[in-house]
Amino acid sequence: MSRQFRIAPSILSANFAKLGQEVTDVIASGADIIHFDVMDNHYVPNLTIGPLVCESLRPVTDAIIDVHLMVKPVDRIIPDFAKAGANIITFHPEASEHIDRTLSLIRECGCKAGLVFNPATSLSYLDYVMDKVDMILLMSVNPGFGGQKFIPETLNKTRAVRQRIDASGRDIWLEVDGGVKVDNIAEVARAGADVFVAGSAIFGAARDSDAHRYDSVVAAMRAELAKA
Ligand code: DX5
Ligand code: ZN
């Protein structure tokens, strides 16, 4: 079965002084999804952006906005992101008191729902909710910061999740997040991922204002994926 590969730039590494233009330009370069990292200085030791920024970006692009919640508690912010135009909302199961309830809440708000696993978080959280997830996000770094090094042990975990998804018979997207670059994206794809988050590898590639500044890095990732 051939998988469709999707590239999801993380705007965490974008130039926040011109975020709308960054989103427009990176999607024009051939990327598929905007990965939106939400950090609360509580669940993770960093603080980023919330629903207001999502709402501001919504009219700028038709691309899927994939909201990665690194917040605790989770539930009370979900309706705000849905209203702000998020398409996918994922959360870390250890940050939710009631995982089944949180997954249902996301879908009730009209979004696709997903669970996020840190490198050392057990996949057993999936045991009773496979029918309630549309996406599984595997962290290949510990969450909180862009620009970290890919943890190679997560490749085995990616293979394990790919098996679980295939056994489920459902169209669940498998996203890998952290340290993904041109030189390892094919390996991540071969392990079973189909959505590739890349922050520093894409937005760190250029700092000038040429609208085509991301074309070459996105094309290089696509070329690697074609070989996978
Ligand atoms: C880390 C975030 C990632 C991060 C990825 O907590 O979830 O999305 O921005 O950045 P890179 O691609 O630079 O590792
Ligand atoms: Zn992320």
UniProtKB/TrEMBL annotation:
InterPro entries: Aldolase_TIM, Ribul_P_3_epim, Ribul_P_3_epim-like, RibuloseP-bd_barrel. Binds 1 divalent metal cation per subunit. The keyword S-adenosyl-L-methionine does not apply. GO terms for cellular component: cytoplasm. Pathway: Carbohydrate degradation. One of its GO terms (molecular function) is metal ion binding. Pfam families: Ribul_P_3_epim (PF00834). PROSITE patterns: RIBUL_P_3_EPIMER_1. Substrate binds at S10, H68, G144, F145, G146, G147, D177, G178, G179, G199, S200. Its cofactor is Fe(2+); a divalent metal cation; Zn(2+); Mn(2+). A divalent metal cation binds at H35, D37, H68, D177. Keywords: Calvin cycle, Carbohydrate metabolism, Cobalt, Isomerase, Manganese, Metal-binding, Zinc. Its EC number is 5.1.3.1. It catalyses: D-ribulose 5-phosphate = D-xylulose 5-phosphate. The active site is at D37, D177. GO terms for biological process: pentose catabolic process; pentose-phosphate shunt; reductive pentose-phosphate cycle. Catalyzes the reversible epimerization of D-ribulose 5-phosphate to D-xylulose 5-phosphate. Belongs to the ribulose-phosphate 3-epimerase family. This is Ribulose-phosphate 3-epimerase. It comes from Sulfuriferula multivorans. The gene is rpe.
